[in-house]
Amino acid sequence: MQIINTIGRRKTSIARVYVKPGKGDIKVNDRDLKEYFLSEIHQTTVKQPLSTIKAEGQYDVTVNVEGGGVKGQAEAVRLGIARALVEFSTENKPALKKEGLLTRDSRMVERKKPGRRKARRRFQFSKR
């Protein structure tokens, strides 16, 4: 049995994804998908690559994810699953690429600058 190992990143989240042929189980950090990602939106985000190629119930996915927030983690998992599906079959690549699931979203939080309240926000100006 072949197990594909890929990595997905988003903001400060890193997801190590292991995909193998199976009956459709998705485990995130040793917990069920619905137990880890409580929001329906995040569950849909994670399943998006599988639904794009109409492969729900064909692969077992195990994920170790750390860092960042819930949305960043969900999108990191999505990228990892999409990359694994391309490794299984290169026929999946055009459909996944068309949906933008193979592109790593490189946007990160801008650092705080000295003399500012946040990255760009200045302290309130007082004339008097």
TrEMBL record:
Basic residues biased stretches: 113-128
GO cellular component: ribosome
Span list, region Disordered: 104-128
InterPro entries the UniProt entry points to: Ribosomal_Su5_D2-typ_SF (IPR020568), Ribosomal_uS9 (IPR000754), Ribosomal_uS9_bac/plastid (IPR023035), Ribosomal_uS9_CS (IPR020574), Ribsml_uS5_D2-typ_fold_subgr (IPR014721)
UniProt entry tagged with the keyword Hydrolase: no
Keywords on record: Ribonucleoprotein, Ribosomal protein
NCBIfam families: PRK00132.1
Family under the similarity heading: Belongs to the universal ribosomal protein uS9 family.
Protein name per UniProt: Small ribosomal subunit protein uS9
Lineage: Bacteria, Pseudomonadati, Bacteroidota, Cytophagia, Cytophagales
Gene that this polypeptide is encoded by: rpsI
